[in-house]
Specification:
By secondary structure, this protein is mainly alpha-helical. The protein is built from nine helices and no strands. α2 runs antiparallel to α5 (about 110-120), α5 crosses α6 (about 120-340) and α7 (about 345-365) packs antiparallel against α9. It starts with a helix and ends in a 32-residue tail after the last helix. GO terms for molecular function: microtubule binding.
Length: about 500
């Protein structure tokens, strides 16, 4: 609140300072208006220069007042204007020498009046009056504007004063409320202090009661501990006696139950031994029956496997002989055809023959181990005949035989694939041999044509040499008839031969 009062006090001083220059300005303007309405003396030739000088001085003063633009907004400008007007009014009382040195401005009304005075005497007075009236009108308008501006500012200041009054009332009301609250709080604080004093007394009294209760509680605890120890001793003695009685009873019951359990156990053991012996006899009979059936099945399976193995062996041997004979025939035909080729074809055929021999050796290599496999199979069969009584070994051997049969089937399939590969390679070799034979024939034809061409060229050369020697070739011989301009050779020449298929 004090800060707000400190803020509004300089505001009030500023408003009052703004109002005082306006009042001074109004008083100055009223004095100026009174001075302007002073009647002027008419011009007379008897007074001469003094009257003219006075008129010039007054006209000069009026012109200087009218040329200064008034400032309507600021009171400082109005005060300055008032001071200027006062300064201008003082030289009218001084000597006329001061006005003799002042030259009027070219556009001032004083210059115009002096010109009119020189032209005529009667028009000068009228012009002065008209100019004075115009200056007064302008001055009145300016003062009216200033008055309206001052009235507007006065209204604003009155509004500010109203606002200030309202705010001061509001803050005074708040201050009163705060004082009332402060009194209430002081009363509450005193009441709380009294309550604190009372509560402190109660706390001290309660502390004393607490100490007395603790002492009583300790005494009662001691008494209860002594009583509890006595009761515990009595309980321990009674429990010991009861425990001894119960242990004796339990021992008697346990001995009787042990006798009963031992008799029951003996009976159950005898029953179990009898049942076990009967089950063993049954299992032995079933085992013997299963062994007999398994031996019969094993014998049948072994016979079937031997028959199938012998049949497969015979079929493989027959197929092998057929393949060997067919391959031998094909190799003989290939060797017979390849002997007729040239040196280049022979070298190529030897390389192919080497590759085919290696492939044949690789193809025949798996067949060399068939006898060894058969021997191993015979040994396995003999071992199985010796170990027929063991069923697990028999099953494992049968699985081994099945695996070996699968391997043999896979080998047969591999051999078939190799046979097909060999057939494909033989077909390729036949195609290559045919191609080589065709190339060889083409080469032979080309060589024959080249030899014929060489013979023809040699003959033409001999003829040309003979003609040159005999002088039959004349310089007037046509170029078409000369051997150098003969037509190019036909399709038998090397330049027109088709390219070889590589």
């Amino acid at each position: 609140m004090f800060t707000l009062l400190g803020y509004f006090v300089p505001l009030l001083t500023f408003v009052f300072q703004r109002d005082t220059p306006k009042q001074d300005l109004l008083s100055c303007q009223s004095s100026e208006n009174e001075e302007t309405f002073v009647p002027r003396t008419p011009f007379s030739p008897s007074h001469g220069g003094s009257g003219r000088r006075a008129s010039c001085g007054s006209a000069h003063n009026t012109s200087r007042r009218s040329m200064v633009p008034p400032l309507q907004d600021s009171p400082v400008a109005s005060r300055k204007e008032f001071q200027k007007d006062g300064d201008v009014a003082h030289p009218a009382l001084s000597s006329p020498k001061r006005f003799a040195m002042v030259s009027p401005k070219p556009h001032s009304p004083v210059r115009q009046k002096s010109c009119v005075a020189r032209l005529g005497g009667q028009t000068e007075g009228l012009d002065e009056r008209l100019l004075a009236v115009q200056g007064l009108k302008e001055r009145c308008e300016e003062q009216a504007k200033q008055i309206s501006a001052l009235q507007a500012q006065l209204g604003e200041t009155s509004i500010c004063m109203d606002v200030l009054a309202i705010t001061t009332q509001h803050f005074c009301h708040k201050n009163e409320i705060a004082l009332v609250k402060e009194r209430e709080l002081s009363l509450e604080l005193s009441r709380i202090r009294d309550e604190v004093v009372v509560s402190v007394g109660r706390w001290e009294r309660l502390q004393g009661e607490k100490a007395e209760l603790e002492r009583n509680f300790e005494q009662q605890l001691r008494k209860l501990k002594v009583e509890q120890e006595k009761e515990l001793q009595d309980l321990q003695e009674s429990l010991r006696e009861e425990q001894q009685k119960e242990t004796e009873l339990l021992q008697q019951q346990q001995s009787s139950q042990l006798e009963q359990f031992s008799s029951l156990h003996q009976q159950q053991v005898e029953e179990m031994t009898e049942n076990h012996e009967a089950a063993m006899l049954e299992m032995e009979a079933a085992h013997n029956a299963t062994l007999a059936t398994l031996q019969e099945e094993h014998a049948r399976t072994v016979k079937n496997l031997r028959m199938a193995h012998e049949q497969q062996k015979k079929s493989l041997e027959e197929e092998f002989e057929k393949l060997r004979l067919s391959l031998q025939d094909q190799v003989d035909t290939l060797t017979f055809q390849n002997r007729s080729l040239s040196d280049r074809a022979k070298r190529f055929e030897e390389a192919l023959r080497r590759s085919t021999d290696e492939q044949i050796v690789e193809a025949l290599a798996p067949y060399q181990h068939i006898e060894e496999d058969l021997k191993s199979l015979k040994e396995v069969l003999e071992m199985k005949n010796q170990q027929i009584h063991q069923q697990e070994v028999k099953i494992s051997e049968l699985e081994k035989l099945a695996q070996k049969n699968a391997l043999l089937e896979e080998r047969v399939q591999v051999l078939q694939q190799q046979n097909e590969d060999l057939k494909a390679r033989i077909d390729l070799n036949l195609a290559m041999s045919r191609q080589l034979s065709e190339e060889n024939a083409n080469l032979q034809e080309y060589v024959e044509k080249e030899s014929n061409e060489k013979k023809r060229l040699s003959r033409t050369n001999e003829e040309l040499l003979w003609r040159l020697q005999t002088g039959e070739l004349s310089p007037h011989m046509s170029p078409n008839q000369s051997p150098l301009h003969r037509p190019s050779p036909g399709p038998g020449s090397p330049s027109h031969l088709p390219p070889f298929p590589r």
